[in-house]
Amino acid sequence: MRAMVVDDSKAMRAVLGRMLRSCGYDEVFEATNGVDAFRAIRDHGSPDVVLVDWNMPEMSGIEFVRRARSSGLIDDASLVMVTSESSIEKVMEALESGADEYLMKPFTQDALLEKIELARSRH
Ligand SMILES: [Mg+2]
Asked: Looking at domain 2-111, what is its CATH homologous superfamily?
């Protein structure tokens, strides 16, 4: 299975990448913001699961989710927002924009896996 991690923090990309690989995602590619994520999708094809940070330069996570969903580019991918934005309004905005699930930082590997499973069952 293929996953993409979109986060401007190198440390966060490393943590998420390690967690994904340890639970069977043999192909994990990374992007540093929304613009970079579209480039990565063009280069690697659509992933099965996308983990997206909210606050990033150039193109935010929420903007990426909106554009990715409205373009149909990643129709088959499950999308999880992974962010420290914790207000109900932000959660609702993410889900209404096309995210399948929402995970708040900091998180455990179990919580991440649970959200991915939920996102995959829901999508
Ligand atoms: Mg960030």
From this structure: Response regulator (3.40.50.2300)
| Ligand 1 centroid from CA 53, angstroms | 6
Residue ranges covered by each domain of the chain: 2-111
Which residues place a Cβ less than 5 A from the ion ligand 1?
8, 53, 55-56
Q: How far is the CA of 89 from the centre of ligand 1 (A)?
A: 18
Using the Cα atoms of residue 94, residue 99, residue 101 and residue 106 in order, give the sign of their dihedral. Answer: negative
pLDDT at 103 over 80: yes
pLDDT at 122: 82
Listed residue (20, 39, 9) closest to 119, CA to CA? 20
Q: How far apart are the first and last CA of the chain?
A: 16
**pTM score > 0.85 for this model?**
yes
Centroid of ligand 1 to alpha carbon of 7 (angstroms):
6
Residues 115, 24: Cα–Cα separation, whole Å: 15
Report CA(13)–ligand 1 centroid distance (Å): 10
Q: Which two tokens stand for residue 42?
A: 């063009």
